[in-house]
Amino acid sequence: MPATALLPLLNRIAESLERMAPPPADPAMLDDPTQDSFIWQGGSGHLLPIPHMQAVPLKLLKGIDRQIRQVMGNTRFFAHGLAANNVMLWGARGMGKSSLVKACLLAVNEEQRRNGHPPLALIEIPRDDLATLPQLLALLRRTSRRVILFCDDLSFETQDADYKSLKSVLDGGIAGRPDNVLVYATSNRRHLMPQNMIENEAGDAINPGEAIEEKVSLSDRFGLWIGLYGASQPHYLSIIDAYAEERQLPIAREELHRRALQWAMQRGSRSGRVASQFITALSAELAEEAR
After folding, report:
1. pTM (2 decimals)?
2. Where are the chain's structural domains?
3. One biological process GO term for this chain (predicted)?
């Protein structure tokens, strides 16, 4: 094919690819006061708006009153333009760490709107996109909206250097975290890294103490370090009661508790997640019986 005939074809292909590609991230989208949640897509450098954030109402989070007060207080300070800390929530699986973050954001934003003040934005950054944090922060410096960066289920493995990107953001400095940005993270691990990784670092390093400090110190850079622990039986049943009341399930309390404990025994654990799964299954079962 002659070059003169090939050129129009290449131009059409290029135009098609441009139309298929999403537009670059624009900080102006954060100025929409009706949009509270986004996901950062580090590979393409775009913000994906989430119209309806999946969240559990704050009133359904039982047995963690102290943790709720801490996260709500810190989030309120930040929304009011006051000094606030980065937050690490760590502990047992399924105990509501990420639910607590989202529920507190929604509750604070409800207060903000009721009082005529701008709401916060929550941007979830996937674990695999931490290396693109500088790119996201450059975008957030161009907006005045106050933003919580949310890193859910955070942990690092051997030979994983992405923790250094997060560490630099938490440290601040001339190119660190802007004043309108906080970091909230959740993890099942207290120090974000497995114990054997820390031990290996100690065994392989010339100076074991410095190697361990480099790994463990990441957690220390969160000003609030909040633990959520496994649920006792009364705690678990209080969660069950709250869910059942919210859904108005037609079942006697003794029967509800009996079946809830049986479900937990089959799952081998008691947690908010197990309670939610039980209520979902029970709701469907009761609805089927009522047909």
Report:
1. 0.79
2. 27-228, 233-290
3. proteolysis
Which CATH number is correct for 27-228, 3.30.300.30, 2.10.10.90, 3.40.50.300, 1.10.246.40? 3.40.50.300
pLDDT tens string 63-76: 899 999 999 999 99
